[in-house]
Amino acid sequence: LSLEMDLREVLERDGLLLFYQPIVSVAEERLEGFEALVRWNHPLRGMIPPDRFIPLAEETGLIIDLGKWVISEACRSLKLWQEIYPKAAQLTMNVNVSIRQFATPGLVEHISEVLQLNKLAPACLKIEVTESVIMQDKAHVVGELNRLRALGVQIAIDDFGTGYSSLSYLQNMPIDHLKIDRSFISGFQESQENDQIVRSIISLARSLGLSVIAEGVETRGQLEKLRALQCDKAQGFMFSRPVDEKKAREIIGTSQ
Ligand code: G
Ligand code: G
Ligand code: NA
């Protein structure tokens, strides 16, 4: 309960932090964009990871305000970077959206307003949604994803491979990208099974015309293997941990 009160308080005083993890092209290791990841620096408990407070925010409904803040802040940062660096015009921003945010009216309207306010091209924004979010209320979530795509926003399926995925399920989904869950990348050089899973996700994506992002890439060996499999993009500690806005700006400044 006290954590809930603290979360309410930190939201009210705009005290959460947004970190950004680079996403790069596998072929050229060129910076393509960032994933926005929320952080809570608690005065007594230190950095609280999102796995600890996103579920709480979901249960209490605080996720609605938190989620709006994340979308606004992520778009504001992207706009700032584009103003500083002409080369940032092509960068994209991935934002995670959870089930309760879809279930509450106003998500699409809020995203549309924030894009207009910041004069951002809608294609710069990518919404990450897990398979489980879609499955919990498929008709409604798919409807909202269609509305987002009608704005020009792109959709990525997050943690792909851990859920209910099947060819028929994916075929009619309004999506643009698959993100391979990092559990498949971590053991993927040693494990025959993970290797097969990664290969089949990439070929599945190819056949559906989707791009593929590998999460949790930590070693050059993993990257080389992804390159051989023609995976499109990668994200992970090999390139960078999630960093604050200032550090993200430096990464853009020194990128090719
Ligand atoms: O940053 P870290 O890997 O600790 O994130 C853990 C999980 O928290 C991730 O799976 C991510 O999906 C989730 N998460 C991080 N930031 C956000 C956010 O802004 N909104 C939502 N809904 N989930 C987030
Ligand atoms: O899928 P999700 O949005 O939950 O993933 C983002 C989380 O994964 C973040 O909390 C981030 O810190 C973590 N993460 C990002 N890159 C790596 C990596 O290369 N290895 C590991 N172990 N975790 C990573
Ligand atoms: Na994510």
From TrEMBL:
<feature type="domain" description="EAL">
    <location>
        <begin position="1"/>
        <end position="256"/>
    </location>
</feature>
<protein>
    <submittedName>
        <fullName>PAS domain S-box-containing protein/diguanylate cyclase (GGDEF) domain-containing protein</fullName>
    </submittedName>
</protein>
